[in-house]
């Protein structure tokens, strides 16, 4: 209804219009006006609107208008608004309304697009403005910088000019200086020349004056002395002769020589001191470097140290030589060279240390030999902890051990246990004592045998001596080759042999050897005759041995004590037995061997 | 400290005898000899004219009084006050007069340095030495008094003559390689003679006693050269003070420069100790001593007590720039003195008013003399080496 009303309105308005409209003005008046009013209508139209509206359509040309509109609409793509029926086009209301609606929509759309376009256009225009502004700004900046650039160029040029001018002036100054120096030197020569000239004149004047004075023979030119005084040193003045001249010369040279000698002495002393200092320095340097040798692995250093060691030896020899030949060039050179070498080594070492220190400071350096302080401390702590732990462990062990030993489960068992242990020990001891007694008895036996043997030997010796004496007598008396000499010899040898069957002496039939053996036996007889003495001394010794052995074999382990005693005893017994079995020789040896 | 009464004198002629027993002063034309301990007048002599120069003989027996204007020299004896001796140079004139080391000869230099006359007091002999050179120090006796070196100028060249003082025989005569010899000085051991050139050229020549040239030393070229020279008492060092305000030390073995000392305007070396005298106006050069010194407070004689305080380094020494257009400018090291053990060297640089520096023979105190003041400086005794 509203639609109808709306559409009816234009019709009614159209109809009410009085203004005639030329139908040819269709194209001029687009549908803008009617649509405007149609859209915003609810307002009663004024006469003007009527007049505009009536320009397109009026009562007369309705059908033309309709057909025109139809054409237009169909050209726009809308369905026809009117239907042709019975000669007069009639409006199809529905399609008209639809078309109108469509047209309205279209119109709205186009308005919207227009708006959009307008906004866009606005945007673009503002952008354009902005760009233009910035463009102008940049242009200004460019101008400005161009100006600056030119200014700087200008300045640079000026400075260059200044430099050039300064250089020129410097050159000029130098030239001037040179010129002035030349002038000075030329003037100096001129002055010298003039001076010389004036001086010559002056000397001439002096000569002249001198001449005049001498010629004048001024009487006043004299000395007036009351009496002549003696010389201060009491000597008489001497005439000037050739002798005095020579003497003067001699004295002069003597003073000079004395001076030189004293100076040379001083220098030598100084030189020796300096050499000593250098030697000392060198030794110290060598010691410093060698003390580092242990921590260093470098072969080169070892080599050089060897070299320096050899140098050192050489120099030690040299120093003694040096004191004699103080001006020995070679020795001096050697010393200075070795010092230089040492110093170089020391310097290298110091540099190395410095670099190491700097690296360590930077924290970059890792070396197997040198442990950084932290790691060192950590290790120290670890070790301390370990030590503590071990100590605790030992403590606990000791406690347990003590417990074990001291407090058993109950007293009886403890006593029994103790008894058991004691019994064992006792048994063992008994056994050992038995053995010991046996051995002692054997030893006594042996000793007895030995003493008897010794007594026998003594007797036999006496007999032998007598035999020998008689034999010698015979020999002496019977110098003839006719008597048989073998008998006494063999008898003597036999007798000697029979005396000591167990002896290890190698008895030879020569009298010299016999004598030797005799002498040996004679030597040992004084010791053998006091029969008991060797044995007792031996016993003493063995007895003494026992405490000695005890002293170094006793450890706080009680069980082993008796073992040790017995073992020492056994060893001594064997020794004693050996002594008993052996000959006089070995006994005497045992006696004489220092213990 | 006690003070004696004040005595008059003229011309700053006041000499202590070498044996230290007597003091000779001049008042106008009178010579007054006093006993040093009692200051009693021992002798009073009258000379013929105003005395210009007084000198004791080496054995303290005679005093020489020279009157340059009249060309007279009068010699007085202490033992015999009646004894007199008068030497008249007459028209030759007199420029300087001195004793010989043996105390029995008087050497007079005549006017214009025409000759040196050697008058003997014990014999009738007179010797003449021709053409001595007129220079800063043309004549020097060796310490032991045996030799005399005299600078001469012949044929526009410098020569040196060495005489034996005993009989005034010419020992050596040689030419030196100098432009204009300015001075000669024997080393204390009498074996080396140092000869230096005028300030227009820096050159030191060292000659041995027999006239051989040992070495030459020259520090630099064109600028003004040597101003003063000093030997160390041990003859080991030769100190050369020059116009460039530096002291250079040469060693006696190689005659090469050992070291050089500067006199900078601002002292900032931390080892230097600077003492400033408070209260008085002109410091007598006490704050311009060589760096090696460690000097505690000194005292000044007479009335005003002045205090010395140690100044903080760096310190700027107030100097007066001399006029460069004048000859013999007052710059450079003009006075030097070694201590007796050769450990210290005192130097005076610039235009300070110190006229002389001398060490006590013990080596631990220094006396500075200016025109009107004197100052004693005591050095801290360091442990002997």
UniProtKB/TrEMBL annotation, chain A:
Residues 511-535 are annotated as: Disordered. One of its GO terms (biological process) is intraciliary transport involved in cilium assembly. Transmembrane segments: none annotated. InterPro entries: Adhesion_Centrosome_assoc, Afadin/alpha-actinin-bd. This is Synovial sarcoma, X breakpoint 2 interacting protein a. It comes from Scleropages formosus (Asian bonytongue). It is found in: Cell junction, Adherens junction; Cytoplasm, Cytoskeleton, Microtubule organizing center, Centrosome, Centriolar satellite. GO terms for cellular component: adherens junction; centriolar satellite; ciliary basal body. Keywords: Cell adhesion, Cell junction, Coiled coil, Cytoplasm, Cytoskeleton. The gene is SSX2IP. Belongs to the ADIP family. Residues 128-215, 243-284 form a coiled coil. Its main location: other. It comes from the Eukaryota.
Automatic annotation (TrEMBL), chain B:
Transmembrane segments: none annotated. This is WD repeat containing, antisense to TP73. The lineage of its organism: Eukaryota, Metazoa, Chordata, Craniata, Vertebrata. GO terms for cellular component: microtubule organizing center; MWP complex.
């Amino acid at each position: 209804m509203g639609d109808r009303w709306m559409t009816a309105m234009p019709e009614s308005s159209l109809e009410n219009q009085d203004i005639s409209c030329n139908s040819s003005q269709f194209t001029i008046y687009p549908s803008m006006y009617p649509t405007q009013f149609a859209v915003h209508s609810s307002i009663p139209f004024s006469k003007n609107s009527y007049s505009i509206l009536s320009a397109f359509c009026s009562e007369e040309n309705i059908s033309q208008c309709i057909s025109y509109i139809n054409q237009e609409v169909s050209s726009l793509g809308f369905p026809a608004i009117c239907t042709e029926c019975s000669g007069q086009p009639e409006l199809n209301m529905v399609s008209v309304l639809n078309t109108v609606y469509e047209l309205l929509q279209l119109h709205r759309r186009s308005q919207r697009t227009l708006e959009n376009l307008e906004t866009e256009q606005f945007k673009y225009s503002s952008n354009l403005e902005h760009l233009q502004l910035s463009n102008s700004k940049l242009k200004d900046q460019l101008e400005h910088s161009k100006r600056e650039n030119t200014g700087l160029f200008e300045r640079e040029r000026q400075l260059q000019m200044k430099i050039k001018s300064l250089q020129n002036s410097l050159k000029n100054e130098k030239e001037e200086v040179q010129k002035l120096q030349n002038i000075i030197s030329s003037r100096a020569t001129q002055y010298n020349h003039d001076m010389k000239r004036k001086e010559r004149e002056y000397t001439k004047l002096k000569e002249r004056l001198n001449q005049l004075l001498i010629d004048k023979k001024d009487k006043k030119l004299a000395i007036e002395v009351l009496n002549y005084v003696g010389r201060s040193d009491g000597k008489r003045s001497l005439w000037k002769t050739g002798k005095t001249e020579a003497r003067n010369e001699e004295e002069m040279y003597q003073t000079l020589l004395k001076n030189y000698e004293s100076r040379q002495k001083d220098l030598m002393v100084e030189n020796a001191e300096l050499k000593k200092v250098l030697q000392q320095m060198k030794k110290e340097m060598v010691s410093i470097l060698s003390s580092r040798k242990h921590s260093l692995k470098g072969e080169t250093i070892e080599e050089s140290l060897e070299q320096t060691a050899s140098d050192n030896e050489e120099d030690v020899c040299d120093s003694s030589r040096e004191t004699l030949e103080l001006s020995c060039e070679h020795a001096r050179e050697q010393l200075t060279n070795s010092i230089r070498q040492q110093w170089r080594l020391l310097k290298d070492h110091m540099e190395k240390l410095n670099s190491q220190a700097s690296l360590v400071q930077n924290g970059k350096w890792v070396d197997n030999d040198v442990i950084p302080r932290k790691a060192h401390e950590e290790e120290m702590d670890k070790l301390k902890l370990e030590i503590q732990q071990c100590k605790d462990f030992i403590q606990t062990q000791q406690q347990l051990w003590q417990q074990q030993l001291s407090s058993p489960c109950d007293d009886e068992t403890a006593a029994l246990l103790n008894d058991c242990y004691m019994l064992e020990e006792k048994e063992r001891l008994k056994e050992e004592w038995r053995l010991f007694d046996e051995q002692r008895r054997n030893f006594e036996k042996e000793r007895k045998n030995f003493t008897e043997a010794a007594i026998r030997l003594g007797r036999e010796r006496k007999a032998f001596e007598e035999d020998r004496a008689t034999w010698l007598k015979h020999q002496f008396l019977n110098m003839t080759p006719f008597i048989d000499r073998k008998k006494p010899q063999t008898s003597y040898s036999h007798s000697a042999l029979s005396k000591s069957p167990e002896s290890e002496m190698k008895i030879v039939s020569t009298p010299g050897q016999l004598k030797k053996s005799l002498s040996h036996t004679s030597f040992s007889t004084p010791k053998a005759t006091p029969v008991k003495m060797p044995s007792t001394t031996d016993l003493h010794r063995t007895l003494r041995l026992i405490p000695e052995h005890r002293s170094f074999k006793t450890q706080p382990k009680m069980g082993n004590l008796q073992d040790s005693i017995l073992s020492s005893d056994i060893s001594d017994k064997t020794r004693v037995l050996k002594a008993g079995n052996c000959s006089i020789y070995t006994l005497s040896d045992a006696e004489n061997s220092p213990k | 400290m006690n003070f004696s009464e004040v005595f008059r004198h003229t011309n700053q002629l006041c000499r202590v005898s070498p044996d230290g027993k007597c003091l000779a002063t001049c008042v106008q034309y009178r010579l007054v000899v006093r006993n040093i301990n009692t200051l009693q007048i021992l002798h009073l002599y009258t000379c013929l004219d105003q005395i210009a120069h007084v000198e004791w003989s080496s054995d303290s027996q005679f005093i020489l009084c020279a009157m340059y204007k009249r060309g007279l020299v009068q010699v007085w004896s202490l033992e015999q006050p009646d004894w007199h001796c008068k030497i008249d140079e007459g028209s030759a004139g007199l420029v300087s007069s001195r004793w010989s080391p043996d105390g029995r000869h008087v050497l007079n230099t005549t006017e214009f340095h025409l000759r040196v006359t050697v008058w003997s007091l014990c014999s009738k002999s007179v010797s003449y030495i021709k053409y001595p050179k007129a220079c800063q120090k043309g004549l020097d006796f060796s310490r032991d008094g045996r030799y005399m070196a005299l600078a001469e100028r012949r044929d526009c060249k410098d020569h040196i003559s060495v005489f034996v003082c005993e009989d005034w025989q010419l020992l050596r005569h040689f030419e030196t390689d100098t432009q204009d010899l300015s001075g000669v000085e024997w080393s204390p051991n009498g074996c080396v003679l140092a000869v230096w050139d005028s300030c227009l050229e820096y050159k030191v020549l060292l000659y041995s006693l027999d006239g051989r040239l040992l070495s030459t030393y020259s520090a630099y070229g064109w600028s003004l050269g040597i101003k003063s020279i000093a030997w160390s008492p041990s003859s080991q060092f030769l100190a050369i003070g020059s116009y460039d305000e530096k002291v250079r030390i040469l060693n006696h073995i190689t005659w090469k420069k050992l070291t050089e000392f500067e006199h900078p305007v601002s002292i900032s070396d931390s080892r230097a100790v600077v003492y400033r005298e408070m209260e008085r106006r002109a410091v007598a050069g006490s704050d311009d001593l060589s760096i090696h010194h460690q000097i505690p407070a000194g005292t000044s004689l007479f009335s005003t007590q002045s205090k010395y305080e140690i100044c903080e380094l760096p310190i700027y020494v107030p100097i007066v720039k001399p006029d460069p257009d004048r000859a013999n400018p007052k710059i450079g090291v003009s006075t030097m003195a070694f201590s007796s053990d050769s450990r210290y060297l005192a130097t005076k640089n610039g235009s300070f008013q110190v006229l002389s520096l001398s060490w006590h023979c013990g080596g631990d105190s220094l006396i500075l003399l200016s025109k009107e003041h004197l100052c004693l400086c005591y050095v801290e005794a360091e442990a002997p080496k």
